[in-house]
Specification:
Elements: H1 9-23, E1 25-28, H2 34-49, E2 54-55, E3 74-77, H3 84-104, E4 108-118, E5 124-127, E6 137-144, E7 157-160, E8 166-169, E9 176-180, E10 186-188, E11 195-204
Antiparallel strand pairs: 1-9, 2-3, 3-4, 4-11, 5-10, 6-9, 6-11, 7-8, 7-10
Helix pairs in contact: 1-3, 2-3
Bound molecules: N-oxalylglycine (OGA) and manganese (II) ion.
The site of manganese (II) ion (MN) has 3 residues, from loops.
Amino acid sequence: MNTCSFNDLNARVACIIDDLAEQGWSLQTHFIAPTLTLELAEECRKRAAAGLLVQAGVGRSALAVISEGLRGDHIQWLDAGQNAACDQYLAVMDAVRQALNQALYLGLEDFESHFALYPPGAYYKKHLDRFRDDDRRAVSVVFYLNEDWRAEEGGALRLHLADGSCRDVLPHAGSLLVFLSADMPHEVLPATRERLSLTGWLRRRGAAPF
Ligand code: OGA
Ligand code: MN
């Protein structure tokens, strides 16, 4: 993997592009300003306290089935214009989308993202970020919001790589994990404390399922 120690957004996005082309995934620590990361974590907690995060199904449609055996997180989708920190995050991800399109010709058209809160003990079993009836999700993007996370608290995102090996990524505040949605089976391991993230997808043009 490339070692990226630059500080500016363009350089980090260049790293993501190289990593995706080479290995299909990229991890960037300290991806955005710590103050913005903190504001996003606060917003997530505020929404959770207000009861706005709901138990996740396995799809976005009204037909989504709550599947406790598969995933135990609570989510709320982001919409533009509700919160300044969220809008800043969406603007950064739009810049990432445009850069990936220019470099890799992915034809990414939009970005959808949700806050996710995993209560202690919750997990998301091994899966691919694609629906059987909808292949628009091309690039998965997970941004973590957990200050002072310790390895013994668990909660890693485990990537199952093509060579049969695994790579565990801890959900440290400020870390951004990006991977090709169609190629990368992954799972979320249970943690001993609450685990917060913004999980999203850069999507290609395509027909929405009915
Ligand atoms: C997902 C997912 C990973 C994470 O929501 O599809 O895999 O680390 N999330 O929260
Ligand atoms: Mn996933």
